[in-house]
Amino acid sequence: MIMKDFIGFNSLIGKLKHLPRSGWVRSGVSNPETVAAHSWRVAVLILEFADEIRSMGADVNRAVKMALYHDLGESVIGDLIVMHKYAQISVQDKYTKESVAVKGLADESGMAEIYDLWSEMEDGQSATALVVRDFDIIDMLLQAYEYLQKYPDFEILKEFMENNIAQVKTELGQRLLAEIKSAQDEFLADK
After folding, report:
1. What is the pTM of this model?
2. Cα–Cα distance measured from residue 34 to residue 41, given in angstroms and rounded to the nearest whole number
3. How far is the C-alpha of 63 from the C-alpha of 127, rounded, in Å?
4. CB 179 within 8 A of CB 141
5. What is Dmax (Cα atoms) for the chain?
6. What's CA 81's distance to the chain center, in Å?
7. What top-level class would CATH report for the domain 6-190?
8. In the chain, where does DSSP find H-type helix?
9. How far apart are CA 19 and CA 55, in angstroms?
10. Where are the domains of the chain?
11. Could you give the CA distance from residue 39 to residue 65 in angstroms, rounded to a whole number?
12. N or C: which end of the chain has fewer CB within 10 A?
């Protein structure tokens, strides 16, 4: 494969290394994680549970790629918040903007797979997409727990758990969610 515009494409997606996650910014977290840091840990989480993920019928290599590509559109449209009291945009409008952005990135790079993987995750029907969607949420909830330890008086951080637990669909995701919730409850009880 010959990339159409190597420097332009990588400079654009490189913005994600510096783009703070909007939910944490709006929650008052100082020096929040970036979109790229989030995508990286989602991919690492998938690798940590590779054997179990395979046993669920998901493709681990595809899941890692999906995790790394799933937020590339945010390099163009920014990290827009939906489904929360800080919502900046409707779910449908974000989907439309992100779809156009990801399609443009796929076209610019000559890597159609970027759009295919993003679409598969958005559709959320394949075993691979379900795993990645769960790990996307699990990473966010891990991050909320880590921030809660650092900022125990930020009540909003507890809301991240409450507002997102229903989104986790797989048995593995539910098990990890229970572990995070238990650690959070224990931390808050000792506070």
Report:
1. 0.92
2. 11
3. 9
4. no
5. 56
6. 12
7. mainly alpha
8. 6-13, 22-27, 35-48, 50-55, 60-69, 74-77, 91-109, 112-123, 127-150, 156-164, 171-190
9. 35
10. 6-190
11. 10
12. N
